[in-house]
Amino acid sequence: MTSHTERTSRVLPYVLIIIGTLLVLVASQAVISSRAQIFLSVSVLLFALFVRKKSGYLPSLLMIGLSIFISLRYIFWRLLHTLAFEGWLQSTLMLTLLFAETYSWIILFLGYMQLSWPLNRKECSLPEDQTLWPHVDVFIPTYNEDLDVVRNTVLAAMTMDWPKDKLHVYLLDDGRRPVFQAFAQDVGVNYITRPNNAHAKAGNLNHALEQTQGELVAVFDCDHIPVKSFLVRTIGWMVLNPRISLVQTPQHFYSLDPFQRNLDTYGHIPPESNLFYGLVQPGNDFWNATLFCGSGAILRRKALESIHGFAVETVTEDAHTSLKMQRKGWESAYLRETLAGGLATESLALHVGQRIRWARGMVQIFRLDNPLLGRGLSLGQRLCYLSAMLHFFFPIPRLIFLIAPLAFLCLGQNIIYATPEAVMIYAIPHLLQSLMTQSRIQGRWRYSIWNYVYETSIAIFLAPVVLVAFFAPSRGKFNVTAKGGLITRNFLDTRMVRPNVIMCCILVVAAIVGVVGMVMYRANPVLFQTYAMNLLWVLANLLIVLAAITVGYERKQNRRAPRIPAQLAVSVTDPLRQKCYAATTVDLSKGGASLRMSEPLPADLEVVNVEYSNPHDKITMNVPAQIINQQGTFVRLEWRNRTIQDETSIVEMIFGRSDAWSHWSDYSKDKPLHSLNLLGRGIINFMLIVVLRRRPIG
Question: Does residue 475 sit in helix, strand or coil?
Fold first, then answer.
């Protein structure tokens, strides 16, 4: 039963939001003088700066309320005092900008609602009596991926901690490849295929549901490798509460995505996915609106059967499946523990292709199964799903904001009917307050400004997809994201950066027009300020576009097995001399390892045995390795695994440890100026490498 404290913690945010919204709506419409608006904005900003340093949820809620208040004052001012219709062109441009601003405010509000009270659910213990533990079917769907990518996931799934008679691993091969069937037979897992590829991944999973009987279903994308403790750390919630249909965990990527690699931000800037898995999903969990993300999840068979299996109506079968289950009254849970690691997209082109599918699918759900309509969802669930779907409309407003200052600079159209002074005293507080509030609540999960870079990099490619999916939701098909590829040389992907290069040239021309206008009208204060304001807008956009172009410079990545930093105590044995050396790993990969020895190895030594033991995770390894090179106490090895058992031991050592991915959120809290500095450094390095052919700065 739900305790009084738990009920209070769930009801309190609703009460605070309702009361705060009513007060803010009334206060934000008050008409005051420009001087009073400046005084109000500065006072709120100073109070927010003071509150920002306090810990706990209450300061965050106060900052959210202040940000909504200031932003509402801005949007009401825009709607009531800045609109004037002077011809079809000017009216069209004016309403287009207003649409983008209104969309941004809605997304801001929905984001605040989602993140107002993250649940941060803890693990739930299983019963000591293992006879009460359910049977689990593990589904690993694959279509056209290399076997080398799939092997790791299958071997790791086989060794998960669970009673062997209740663990059933299935390799679901939609590619109908004999080599995959032979591999499944060799390692002892079940192999399922089908005569066609109807409904892509969702159809593959549904076909497997018909062939299996387990009470629970665990789904892993074929490149997502679970830790050994995945099941025992997630299923406790399913046993405790039979109404829970889904337990989702974060999707962590141990290889670098194109933003981390091409902008050289690994370890400095959180990856784009961290915000969703670190903060948005715990926020969704509070409202009982956890989204199924297609991998790293446990689902209840009865819940799936109640909606006739995984959703097939859209190309994002995962989110749609959780929506349909929650419409049926099933509950959901999110555990913010990284219990699996996968491969990120290798290039910007592949990244864009993946996001195209996500955007198309979420817009399809918005059209075909809109969360605001129909029965079965609470208000919180409706708003969480609405936020997730509306988010993928971002390409259109992003492009509007990029070209909006050109309306005045290049076409002479005034699309905000107000003095530059009035625009600044309403817009700047709105931007600063929202920036500061988001920096506070997003903390170490996303850094300021970088979301603009990410959105700008892919907006031009997603915009037509979003429009087509909105007006023709039945069009479009599922596309598989390729993983495990190589980039053998450095190169600028001109196809991917061409739209932003064109945008950059347009913005440079607009900036020149702005400077010329300021010079020509320096004696006219209003025109001078108008040109200056639009010039600053253009320069800010130019900075973001330059960073977006930088992402398209693909850095070489010719390791098929990415090296993963890890400091593990191992023993290295010389089989000839029967001497054992202590060592610590520096990094690990499926191909080999780098070690720091306690003392140098003999110069004539070529082959050693590497031993590792982890009693906590029940991992033991003793695998031969070839010495590739040695410099003092630093040694590089290449595995010489001879058997499936050797390969399984290596997979367990690298990927199976409970703490394998515990570092995923080890980032300091956001500092907007530091974030801006890193952005500038990335652009400068790009200029030095590509344009000037010089070494980047350190």
Answer: coil
Distance, in Å, from the CA atom of 122 to the CA atom of 377, rounded to the nearest integer, reads: 25
Is it the case that residue 281 has pLDDT exceeding 60? yes
Q: What pairs with residue 172 in β-bridges? A: 141, 192
Number of compact structural domains in the chain: 2
188 in any annotated domain: yes
Question: CA-CA distance, 141 to 12, in Å (whole number)?
Answer: 42
- Tokens at 269, concatenated: 């800037």
- Residue 434, in any domain of the structure: no
C-alpha span between 99 and 399 (Å, rounded): 12
Question: CA 667, 670, 673 angle in degrees (round to 5)?
Answer: 130
**Residue ranges of the alpha helices (H) in 34-130?**
34-52, 57-81, 88-115
Q: Domain with 253 in it: what CATH number?
A: 3.90.550.10
Residues 589, 654: Cα–Cα separation, whole Å: 7
Domain termination site, one of 656, 672, 691: 656
CA pair distance 142, 139, nearest whole angstrom: 10
Average pLDDT, the chain: 89
Res. 1 pLDDT band, cuts 50 70 90: very low
What digits encode the pLDDT tens for the residues 668-681?
Answer: 888 888 888 888 87
Mean pLDDT of the 620-641 span: 92
Residue 536 neighbours by CB under 8 Å, 6+ apart: none
* SS3 readout for 402-442: HHCCHHHHCCCCCCCCCCHHHHHHHHHHHHHHHHHHHHHHH
Of the candidates 292, 313, 287, the one whose C-alpha atom is nearest the C-alpha of residue 303 is 292
Q: Phi/psi zone of residue 188: left (φ > 0), alpha (ψ -120 to 50 degrees), beta?
A: left
pLDDT mean over 217-235: 96
Q: How far apart are alpha carbons 626 and 611 in whole angstroms?
A: 14
Range from 244-248, 413-417, 481-485, 598-602 carrying the lowest mean pLDDT: 481-485
* CA–CA separation, 41 and 424 (whole Å): 11
Tens of pLDDT, residues 125-158:
999 999 999 999 999 999 989 999 999 999 999 9
Print the domain residue range for 610: 567-656
Residues that are catalytic: 174, 318
Distances from the Cα of 97 to the Cα of 83, 414, 421, angstroms: 11, 11, 19
- Whether 336 is in a domain gets the answer yes
Q: What per-residue string of b and e applies to 441-472 under the rule 16 or more CB within 10 Å gives b?
A: bbbbbbbbbbbbbbbbbbbbbbbebbeebeee
In a domain, 368, yes or no: no
Query: Cβ contacts of residue 7 below 8 Å, gap of 6+?
Result: none
Q: Report how far apart, in Å, the C-alpha atoms of 643 and of each of 405, 531, 648 are.
A: 64, 71, 9
* Residues in CB range of 256: below 8 A, 6 or more apart: 266, 344, 557, 562
Domain boundary among 305, 329, 344: 344
199, two tokens: 């409904």
Q: Tokens for 157, please give them.
A: 């799934």
One-letter amino acid for residue 368 of the chain: L
Task: Provide the 10 A C-beta neighbour count for residue 1.
Answer: 4
Note the pLDDT tens digit of each residue in 94-104: 999 999 999 99
Q: Would you say the C-alpha torsion 358, 359, 364, 370 has a positive or negative sign? A: positive
pTM across the whole model? 0.90
Q: What CATH code is carried by the domain that includes residue 625?
A: 2.40.10.220
